[in-house]
Amino acid sequence: MTRVFSGVKPTGHLTLGNYLGAMRQWAAEDQHRSDALFCVVDLHALTVDHDPARVRRLSRQSASLLLAAGLDPELCTVFVQSHVDEHARLSYVLECVATDGEMRRMIQYKEKAVRERERGGSVRLSLLTYPVLMAADILAYGTDEVPVGDDQAQHVELARDLAVRFNQRYGHTFVVPRATVPKVAARVMNLQDPTSKMGKSDDAGPGIVYLLDEPDTVRKKVMRAVTDSGREVVYDRQARPGLANLLEILAACTGGNPAELSGVYESYGALKKDTAEAVVEVLRPLQKRHKELCADPGYLEGVLRDGAERARAMARPTVDAAYRAIGLLEPASETVVNAAR
Ligand code: TYM
Fold it and tell me: Is 338 a residue whose pLDDT tops 80?
């Protein structure tokens, strides 16, 4: 059976981008057709300036939103990264296979490092090595497919490169994974700046629809979306990025096609209104389920505990195999030690 692994980073409140670009496919398709794991990758949240209490809060909330979005613990494994030691164990070994140059070429590193410096902060070493930890997340589970939004494709490519390199040097150990990206809404853009991604770590909210935004807030944000000069509703990502973003959001929410939808609308106002309502309707059941889950924190705790146990058992053999292959001495078992005494 195909093994699927993906994750969300609790650095901010989850957004419509996270949902349309990733979570929706996990719930609608991936968990049904494959052996799938979905992870709140909390170690990744420590790569930038962070408040420990906020990371804890967001980790819990992200896990709850994964379930609210439709992930079913009977069908897939939902867990928190730091509960499974194998991620960090494998990450170090993969750092011994990756190169410094490879890390510095990562687009997200370059962008985030600039942002951190502009804020007057220092760049944490873990921000540079982050893609190796992500590769460890993926490779530890023998993952075939990694369903992600377009912004993570380069990181998955790195995981592939590291798997191939490791296998060539030290013997076949890892499955070589591949990214799967949704056809529509693989990169939802910021409503106020349609040339940049709708990212949860951004400070200001008017261009970002959060999954827990109230319906009226969603409506306001969509109605105020920056559109391009011109009157005709056409789908052209390059020339009309604001309009294209709205058409993609509408298409993703209604199961339509952005180019076809552009022919339906005569005014920007009508398009915005329908997009806003479509987003509100998509978020409604998710918000309701999230509220129910918040009322029963014991349930979530149980799901995460069981998930971590299952994940540990799945990752352990592969990570042990990688340790042996790269030249680390296997710890002697108790029986061998006792026999020698
Ligand atoms: P993160 O937390 O930034 O995003 C989680 C998922 O949401 C997708 N996504 C988007 N898709 C479309 N439009 C957007 N505006 C948008 N914003 C986010 C992301 O592509 C992602 O699929 N490094 C990863 C987390 C991670 C991971 C992993 C993912 C760590 N280890 C192993 C897969 C496998 C990240 O920061 O995702």
Answer: no
- Distance, in Å, from the CA atom of 81 to the CA atom of 89, rounded to the nearest integer, reads 12
- 156 pocket-lining for ligand 1 (C-beta < 6 Å): no
- Which of 197, 221, 273, 288 does the annotation list as catalytic? 197
Query: Which residue in the list 110, 112, 272, 273 is annotated as catalytic?
Result: 112
Question: What does the alpha-carbon distance between residue 85 and residue 316 come to, in Å, rounded to a whole number?
Answer: 9
Q: Which fold has domain 205-293?
A: Tyrosyl-Transfer RNA Synthetase (1.10.240)
Pick the CATH number of 3-181+297-337 from 3.40.50.620, 3.40.50.1820, 3.90.550.10, 1.10.357.10: 3.40.50.620
What lies within 8 Å, CB to CB, of 85 at 6+ separation is 312
Residue 94 has a pLDDT of: 98
Q: What is the mean pLDDT of residues 38-60?
A: 96
Alpha helices in the chain (DSSP H): 16-18, 24-25, 31-33, 52-68, 86-95, 100-104, 107-118, 125-139, 153-170, 215-223, 241-254, 258-262, 268-294, 297-326, 334-340
Average pLDDT estimate for 250-254 = 96
Q: How confident is the model at residue 209 (pLDDT cuts 50, 70, 90)?
A: very high
* 197 catalytically annotated: yes
Which token pair is 200? 């949860």
User: Could you give the CA distance from residue 254 to residue 321 in angstroms, rounded to a whole number?
Assistant: 45
> 296 phi and psi, to 5 degrees?
-135, 70
pLDDT band at 265 (very low <50, low <70, confident <90, very high): very high
pTM (predicted TM-score): 0.95
Q: Which of 108-117, 136-145, 209-218 has the lowest mean pLDDT?
A: 108-117
Best substitution site from 55, 82, 86, 148 to test ligand 1's pocket, by max atoms within 8 Å of Cβ?
Answer: 148
Query: Backbone dihedral region of 3: left (phi > 0), alpha (psi from -120 to 50 degrees) or beta?
Result: beta
